[in-house]
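[step 3/7] fold_predict: job queued, chain A
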Amino acid sequence: MGVLYTVALPIGNLDDVSLRALEVLKKADCIACEDTRNTQILLNKYQINTKLIDCHKFNEKQRSSKISEILENNGTVALVSDAGTPNICDPGSVLIKELVKSGHKVIAIPGACALTAFLSAVPRENEFFTFVGFLPKTNSQKKELFEKFSFINCVFYDSPNRFSDTLNLISELFGSDRQIAVGRELTKIHEEIISGSVGEISEYYEKNTLKGEIVAMVFGQNDENCDEAVIKKDIQILKKQGFSDKDISKILSSVKNYPKNQVYQLAVNLK
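[step 4/7] structure written:
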């Protein structure tokens, strides 16, 4: 049986591709890519002539049978997206699920990813964060996400056309003093990573052009400012499901980063 390699490609600067990725791309029987025109730019730079087939979110299911056939004949296929890592907010999930279900082997060739590149350059007090991918388009859906993860660093991707509305929503929900970090054009000439309050960031982008795909993080609310009403609401939900006070404190401190002792005391006193 052959192997499907998920190969991470540069998110901007073509020099960020790994030597191992180039080797796999050269030796693969074919490269399954989101857009053959975009992938060809990288291949031309490194003089790689491997055959390309398109594999995007609209034809993954269809392509899985063709790729499975190649693997059954002991071939190798490299799966790439236009930029970054396949299956991380990019096509790949449907194909990988189908191939694994059929018993095929999948090997990751790690490399560039906007999420990890951004987080590596943002000052944080701890390692805790949640990643929600691309934000939904409606404010009601965004609001639900931000409220759900208000006590943990929440990282997301967004479009420059919608980011101004996103900033306004964050300010409405948490106040203009809530801290956020924003990254755009990562690894490119005009790369920018800035941190500050929602008010400061909004004012900055009123004066500066906002272009390029955005990765941003809303910092989690500080423990000392935890809204007890919100915590009690979550406690009540778990109590109705039969969880003990001790289990509730463990669950909410782990999932929502609430202070464990505070949760436990509230749970004990909540009837």
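[step 5/7] annotate
The two ends are 59 Å apart (CA to CA).
The chain has a mean pLDDT of 92.
exit 0
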